[in-house]
Amino acid sequence: MTSTSKGIFRPFFIIFIILGCFMAFILIYIKPTNSWISGPIESASSVLKMKNFFSSKTDNLNETTVLIWVWPFGQTFDLTSCQTMFNIPGCHLTIDRSLYNRSHAVLIHHRDISWDLANLPQQARPPFQKWIWMNLESPTHTPQKSGIEHLFNLTLTYRRDSDIQVPYGFMMVGTSSFTFEVPSKENLVCWVVSNWNPEHARVKYYNELSKYIEIHTYGQAFGDYVNDKNLIPTISTCKFYLSFENSIHKDYITEKLYNALLAGSVP
Fold first, then answer.
1. Active-site entry in 63, 137, 199, 214
2. What dihedral angle (degrees, nearest 10) is formed by the CA atoms of 78, 103, 134, 15?
3. Model's pTM, two decimal places?
4. Hey, where are the domains in the chain?
5. Is position 137 annotated as part of the catalytic site?
6. Which residue ranges does the record assign to the Fucosyltransferase N-terminal domain (predicted)?
7. N or C: which end of the chain has fewer CB within 10 A?
């Protein structure tokens, strides 16, 4: 994910993190259904023990605390958003590590894990607590870190087979009619790229395609940087947009597709 895409992705990120934490609330007592990360999986009897533990140790079983260990991508948001934005009761988000022993789930972003794992929680894990492995990058851009294979209970990624899916975007069938005005199109094809590498397949494809049609290109590699504010307006001037991903993997569809749709261009 590039710096530009991080800015555009921020509103989606906040919403999906909150909803992801809400899903964690639901999944606290159930067994994960995938094997992305091998972790301790509780039996039905241990689930009952956890519920009994909560009943005896907490005043309100419906109050769930999710500890965000490190802000993913450095993106912060209002920790009261569960209630204020989505009216989700009983969900408490926190970054206060002193609440570790009382947290039902700990959200840990893969990229923020140090290579020696020294910045992971060092205290003993309470028996009721779930660790959530969060990663929004593709496998190509996900560095392997030895020692985490058996640490996590739940996965939070863009993949549909995750315990908690956090897609970069989604499309819904509208239930009411509306009028959409297609923005004025000045150019046929455009491409905004920040991660330029001549060896990348998408760059080689662009070089070949540009021999036959004019492609309006933007980015530092072309001396025409586009900031977050101007990204969607820039894309909207083109009929078609090259929505090239940095790698091809299962379910890996990022803001590059959704930005084009938001701009009224064909990806």
1. 137
2. -30
3. 0.75
4. 3-165, 187-263
5. yes
6. 62-169
7. C
